[in-house]
Amino acid sequence: MSLWDDLKKKAVDANPELAAKAAQALTKARELAVEAGQKAAPVLKEASEKAAAYAQEKTPILKAQALKAIDDAKVRRAELKERARHDKAAREEMVRTMYDISLSPDDPNFIDEPFNHYDRQLHFFVVTGEILDTQKRNQTHLSASHSHHSGGGYMIDGYGSIGGSSSSMHVSSHNIQEHEFWVKLRDGREACFQFADSAVRIRTGQTVSMLFARPADTQTGQMVALYNHSSQENHVIAGPAAINQIFNLYTVEPGLFNGNEVTTRRNRLLQELDRRLGQLARYSALHGNSQGQLIEGERTV
């Protein structure tokens, strides 16, 4: 017999009537708790269903409000651009506010917010799925260079000398680790993705959201980041400098007279791209794994 059982026996022996009343009170409390739970269950279920219905009803409204905010920002940019043709202050304001956003990464519609750089736009979309298989392999890439040198000489009245010529070939190689993985998408399809990045760590069974960027004039995107929901890690596949080169946003080389302007403009672009990638990482973490929700930039604005 345990110490607790021994104490209960002694209490019952000392005052059987009091012990019986305590047992009855405990039984009654249990019955009341069960009854309260049974009464509360339908109420809780009804409240949950109402909350779900309300959220479903509000989703199109919130979507429309978000898209209107984006459209309003587009109109303001167009007005500033027109005024900037003749107004220095408007031109400065246009450049200053060029990268401003209308929505927060916490907003499910943030993915519809384009990245603006003067007359260029980047749009983003997210593809989420479960890793089915993943493998890394090293690929050896060869490059070669050839040089040819002809010797000099002279001829005077049919006499002189001519030097020989020479050529050389230089071959070099470098290894690139390619990452290939299969993903089961939300709609049940399976797709294979590849990129060259040895630092990304994913394994079978994990859920990932892949972030793609695309120009405004095409629906085909380039993977620029991957968020691992299972490990809560974000991996940048293409950083700001790579995105700038891939999509040719601003690749002007500084010259003798415009060096400072070009460098300043490019540095700001790279900083803003880095900031947007951070915002999109938060977006992917918050919304990329939403069950039953289509997450993608649907419009071209």
Question: What does this protein structure show overall?
Answer:
By secondary structure, the chain is of the alpha+beta class. It has two domains: 1-89; 98-149 and 168-287, no CATH class. Helices cover 42% and strands 30% of the residues. It has five helices and nine strands.
β-strand amount:
25-35%
Overall radius of gyration: 34 Å
Uncertain spans: 291-301
H/E element string?
HHHEEEEEEEEEHH
Keywords for this entry:
single chain, 301 residues, alpha+beta, seven-stranded antiparallel β-sheet, two-stranded antiparallel sheet, 5 helices, 9 strands, 42% helix, elongated, disordered C terminus
How are the elements arranged and paired?
Blueprint: H1 3-14, H2 16-84, H3 88-96, E1 115-117, E2 120-150, E3 153-156, E4 159-162, E5 165-185, E6 190-195, E7 207-215, E8 222-228, E9 233-236, H4 240-247, H5 259-287
Short note summarizing the structure:
It contains five helices and nine strands.
